[in-house]
Amino acid sequence: VQLQASGGGLVQAGGSLRLSCAASGRTFSSSAMAWFRQAPGKEREFVGTIGGNGRGTYYADSVKGRFTISRDNAKKTMYLQMNSLKSEDTAVYYCAASERVTAITRVLYDYWGQGTLVTVSS
């Protein structure tokens, strides 16, 4: 499985950005997919996940109501729509895929993309 994250960039606080994660190499629709992020000097943290086989989404409290994860199984692509961005959202964002249908914790994710940098200026 290969994952390719894209869409990062520089945005002003209060703005929006959409990240994409393109997958290849295996069945996509049954896999839980997730976004994680890592700010400078900090641990990688969970942002949100979308389950496989039509399962729902789950978000970290810090992004709930501002970020939305979706997926297009025909295109094997997952998206992260980020609205009302804050300076504390600045981080490298990673997409990940799991062999499981649902997964929340980092250790349950088997495949990782290379990351895309999001910088929010205040």
Structural notes for this entry:
The protein is mainly β. Helix content is 0%, strand content 48%. It contains no helices and 11 strands. The strands form 2 sheets. Strands 2, 4, 5, 6, 9, 10 and 11 form a 7-stranded mixed β-sheet that branches. A 4-stranded antiparallel β-sheet has the order 1-3-8-7, with no helix packed on it. The termini are far apart. The mean pLDDT is 96.
Give the proportion of residues in helices. Answer: under 10%
Please tell me the overall pLDDT: 96
Q: How many individual β-strands?
A: 11
Rg: 13 Å
The separation of the N and C termini measures 37 Å
The percentage of residues in β strands lies in: over 45%
Structural class: mainly beta
The H/E string reads EEEEEEEEEEE
Number of H- or I-type helical stretches: 0
Taking pLDDT < 50 over at least 5 consecutive residues as the criterion, the unreliable ranges are none
The biggest sheet, with number of strands, parallel, antiparallel or mixed sense and barrel status, is: 7 strands, mixed
Overall 3D shape: globular
